Amino acid sequence: MNDHKGRVTRDGIRIYEDADFAGMHVAGKATAQILDEVAELVFPGQTTGAIDKYIEDRVSEMGATSATIGYRGYKHASCISVNHVVCHGIPGDKKLKDGDIINIDVTVIIDGWFGDSSRMYVAGKLSRKSERLIQVTHDSLMKGIEAVKLGNTFGDIGHAIQSYVEAQRMSVVRDFCGHGLGRVFHSPPNVLHYGRPGTGAVLEEGMFFTIEPMVNLGRAETKVLADEWTAVTRDKSLSAQFEHSIGVTSDGFEIFTLSPADKFHPTY
Ligand code: MF3
Ligand code: CO
Ligand code: CO
Fold it and tell me: Where are the domains of the chain?
């Protein structure tokens, strides 16, 4: 509709067209539907491999494609990150224990459009300290999303997340960030979950990207294990993450990966 759409900004960020929101909406909704369904598969004694198998089957039943299978040699339809695993946990045979908190991250492709989202789940009983971590992480994502307005910058998003998390005496992971997506999985910009107001690229209508803050109860530092995927907190403290795929609109944002059953938050 506007002639400025369909271009790429000086920062390399694609400005999608009005019609492209529909494709993202479909891909995002399928991702969220799968994340809704897996909630009942998370319980003590369950393996993360069995959860991943369910996800892989559902992705193909929906006529979608997994974006992660075959991505840089990754072999699974999800990343499942337990307790002190920050992100990119590899599903496997290990059984969940009572009180484990897990992030499940799913990315699907439908008609060439990518939907990428993750949420926290608990196996069995949630401890008070895990509950607080999960609440703060969820709320930090929502504060980041609320900063998505025309004229604001990516630094405003990062600042909203960082200032909230640090006021709760938790830390924001610096080693991983959100990303542009759309017809590609990871594209500019890097969406940092920390930063200074007014810095970075200015938000424009038609930008599509993820916000996916990782928050640690202890220090922010992470390391990647010998499997070259699993990222853990260096101090072994618990870590949580939530992720939405969103688009910038004339009056703010659209969240593509909203939960159809309103189950995004773990204590629903
Ligand atoms: N879904 C992750 C993200 O939020 C990326 C996972 S890549 C994988 O960007 F290969 F580890 F699956
Ligand atoms: Co992502
Ligand atoms: Co993801």
Answer: 20-255
Distance CA(62)–CA(187), nearest Å, equals 25
Lining residues, ligand 1, CB within 6 Å: 68, 71-72, 74, 79, 88, 105, 107, 116, 210, 212, 229, 243
How far is 86 from 45, CA to CA, in rounded Å? 21
| Domain range 20-255, CATH class | alpha beta
DSSP H or E segment with residue 86: strand 85-87
Q: Which of 126, 123, 122, 144 is nearest to 243 (CA)?
A: 144
Q: Is-contact 208 141, C-beta < 8 A? A: no
Question: What are the structure tokens assigned to 136, written together?
Answer: 């703060």
Average pLDDT, the chain: 96
Closest CA to 254 of 33, 66, 64, 23: 23
Average pLDDT, integer, range 173-194: 98
* 97-154 pLDDT, tens digit each: 999 999 999 999 999 999 999 999 999 999 999 999 999 999 999 999 999 999 999 9
